[in-house]
Amino acid sequence: MEKWKQVILASKLFQNFSEDELEGFLAVASTSREAYKKGQVVANEEMPCSHIGIVVSGMIDAQKTYPSGKYITIKHLGEGEMFGEVVVFSNRKTYPATLIAQTATQVFFLQKEEIMRLQQDYPLLMLNFVQILSQKILTLNKRVKSLSYHTLRQRIVDFLLEVYQKNGTLMFQLPVSRRQMAELLGTPRPSLSRELAKMREEGLIDFEKNSFKILDMEKLEAIFFE
User: Fold this and answer.
1) What's the pTM?
2) Per residue in 115-124, is it b (16+ CB within 10 Å) or e — as a string?
3) How is residue 48 annotated by DSSP?
4) pLDDT tens track for 179-224
5) How many Å apart are CA 164 and CA 157, to the nearest integer?
6) What secondary structure letter does DSSP report for 97?
7) How far is Cα 132 from Cα 107, in angstroms, rounded to an integer?
8) Are β-strands 105-111 and 41-43 bridged in parallel, bridged antiparallel, or unpaired?
9) Ranges assigned E (strand) in the chain
10) 161: exposed, middle or buried (Cβ count in 10 Å: 0-12, 13-18, 19+)
């Protein structure tokens, strides 16, 4: 099986498909593959969205641009990750952010009509699609909860405790870079670094690059009630 098909098969949209099932789907579905150079725009914000895209190679950044020309990176999309799945069936049907290739990139596109047309022949595709949307909603709820906290320190603690709960140990590796962490918490990176340094000085946590250790769980949890 070709490399790009292997990536598609490993994606969430086609999880639990066999190779034969994927080949059968590709033989009857209207799909396409597009190549983009580094820095090339894949889709502009507010552009109509009629396809679901899966990155089969390279990297795409979803960026929100403001009138001043400044922008923030909302998400990094790597091999096997999707875009467009949230808005393609919505009433709005436009991209909420600009997608830019960060490296030479290839994208597999599937028209939304094909999901509806082939749902009876491939019910697993629709099941996977619904699960993907459900997970997006859960992730959004977590983001809203984090941003509802009054202080940056509370958002940091919420993030660290979530990673701690997934790992089950007081010492763990962050799953994202410091820049990505700042973006997730809705704060500039320097502000995040200053607050983390203060928390280390106060004996709440210790860290070296992306390795973190919780030193005082009781005081850390008490931050939510300040």
Assistant:
1) 0.67
2) beebeeebeb
3) B
4) 889 988 888 999 999 999 999 999 999 999 999 999 999 999 999 8
5) 10
6) S
7) 19
8) unpaired
9) 31-36, 41-43, 51-57, 60-65, 71-77, 82-83, 98-101, 105-111, 171-173, 205-208, 211-214
10) middle
